[in-house]
Amino acid sequence: MKHIRLFTAVFACGAMLVLTAQTPQQPPAGQQTTQPDTIITKISPGDFTAPKLAVPEFIPLTKDAEVVSAAKTISDVLWDDFAFEKEFYLIPRDILRTVPRPATADQVAIDRWKELNADGVIVGTVTKSADGIIVEARLIKVADGTMVLGKQYSGSLKSVADGGRIYAHSVADEIHRTQRNLRGVARTKLAFSSDRDGVRMKGPVGDRDTSNIYQADYDGANQSRMTISRWLDIAPAWAPDMSVIAYTSYRTGYPDIVLQSLKDARAPAMPARGGTENQNFLPAWSPDGTKLAFMSTRDGNPEIYVINRDGSGLRRVTNHPSADATPTWSPAGTQLAFTSDRGGTPQVYIVNVDGTGLVKITDGSHCDRAAWSTGKVNEIAYASRTGGGFEIRVFDVATRESRTLTDGIGSNESPTFAPNGRHLAFVSDRTGRQQIYTIARDGTDLKQITKVGANKYPNWSQ
């Protein structure tokens, strides 16, 4: 067990736990789509060449400060959402500014966009309604001036509390889906644990840090606290529909798995029914959201178990004197990857959910914390020790080949895939303290997500 770095026994004492009751991926309350998205054609006939896209600033149709601000924010965020996926060649912003902004969405300077060789241009407007705000976005095919996509959203003024970012994310995901057959991640979330608001708690075995669960947009914006407790809350895991979050908490004095609804204020559930001799860690949701895999000491040794989300149907998956930990599900829900030191050093193994078909997939000095991609490429990411730290490596299940993703700076651990498999989030101490970063699956586009406190155990929503 000494090799499994996740099994640090931490004791804390404190107050009641509270989670924000919200559904993070949903549009703002009251937001409605009032125009159907009818695809007439695509802005570019080639599926393998990135279309050239213009994303000028949205047009504020009224002079209200919140409308003007939202128009600027939405266009900026929309640009960033497209830049993140790299499915379009974006006309540079300084060139966009050479085209006069029209007063309305019907005054599109098609000839000017043709001069810039744009395949498509997004024309957006923002206006105030009687009870909130209306955002409209049109995708225009520059070749013939036809509108290939039109979306209109309405919502309360609360929906622009963050500048209206949700509208930009919605448009980006819709255009990626219809134009590039890509599941975008603009409306996804990252959950993680952080000590940024924690305190040092005194206890019988000495002082201990506390940490809580936090969430952020995929790009690090809108970071907010999800649990408020004087305990150690770590290793969050989004349910596939984002209605529930699971995590490991020491709120009862020993580690146990907590399920908290994000739709209502119901009391947290503890389906694994932990105790002093029955400690449970590291929940992982099955792809259909009906089961949880986790590590437990209930039989005296850390092993992998599977349980229904209501606490029924407990099944033991692994059975070995060594420690088995950190389970992650295959996209089909028929296998688990996990860490075990049964061979002398921690390595990543794959096993069928019924406990058969055990296969070791790594052969490093120390490999840990696997994450299985749900994207089009069947891959497993994990942390592998190199020198004094760890690097993120990716194992291709089909070819059985591995590649190193990170760059050798700092120690890099706890990878988690974006739902489309094109990006990963992970923890790195490259700037001194542990922070959350995202990176493309080809090792480019490293972005720092968190900056406050020490942040660990990222989990990307599906």
Overview of the structural elements:
By secondary structure, the protein is mainly beta. The chain has four helices and 32 strands. The protein has helices spanning 65-85, 93-96, 110-115, 165-180; strands spanning 32-33, 52-54, 59-60, 89-90, 120-128, 133-141, 146-155, 189-194, 200-201, 208-209, 212-217, 224-225, 233-238, 244-249, 256-261, 280-285, 291-296, 303-308, 315-316, 324-329, 335-340, 347-352, 359-360, 367-372, 379-386, 389-396, 401-404, 412-417, 423-428, 435-440, 447-448, 455-460. The strands form eight sheets. Strands 1, 2, 3, 4, 5, 6 and 7 form a seven-stranded mixed beta sheet that branches. A four-stranded antiparallel beta sheet has the order 12-11-8-32, with no helix packed on it. A hairpin with a 6-residue loop joins strand 30 and strand 31 (447-448). It starts with 31 loop residues before the first strand and ends with a strand. Residues 1-40 and 202-207 have low confidence and may be disordered.
Unreliable sequence segments: 1-40, 202-207
* Multimer state: single chain
Give the end-to-end Cα distance, rounded to a whole number of Å: 31 Å
Strand residues, percent:
35-45%
Into which percent range does the helicity of residues fall?
A: 10-25%
Task: Please tell me what the overall shape is.
Answer: globular
The largest pleated sheet is described as: 7 strands, mixed
How many β-strand stretches?
32
The residue-averaged pLDDT reads 89
What value does the Rg take, in angstroms?
24 Å
The tally of helices reads 4
Class computed from helices, strands and strand pairing: mainly beta
